[in-house]
Design a protein that fits this description.
The protein is α+β, with helices and mostly antiparallel strands. The chain has a domain of 58 residues: Orthogonal Bundle (Arc Repressor Mutant, subunit A), CATH 1.10.10. The protein is built from three helices and three strands. A three-stranded mixed sheet has the order 1-3-2. Helix 1 packs across helix 3. The chain starts with 17 loop residues before the first strand and ends in a 5-residue tail after the last strand.
Length: 96
């Protein structure tokens, strides 16, 4: 059985290569969390633009359940970075 086809996601704003870190701490000494560009786009649409999940999913060209998984993953990563003083790096999925 072959793996499922990856559906390309519509991402309006390129946030790749952005990094956030706690103030006063050297980046080299911090654990890093990788937030993918599709997760960042999900945060932008849902939390910044204030759209409903179905609207966000439609704009990204994915199903609502896929969008739900993306936003949950993104929020968990952001919370982990904020609560545990970790750096947050935004990358494209092909930059692994």
């Amino acid at each position: 059985m072959s793996p499922r086809r990856v559906v390309p996601r519509n991402i309006v704003v390129d946030h790749s290569s952005i990094c956030f870190k706690p103030c006063g701490m050297r980046r080299v000494s911090l654990e890093k969390i990788e937030l993918f560009e599709d997760e960042m786009e999900a945060i932008r649409l849902a939390d910044f633009e204030g759209l409903y999940q179905q609207e966000c999913a439609d704009k990204m060209g994915i199903s609502r359940t896929t969008f739900s998984r993306l936003i949950e993953s993104a929020r968990k990563k952001i919370a982990d970075a904020l609560l545990h003083t970790k750096a947050l790096k935004i990358n494209k999925k092909d930059e692994l």
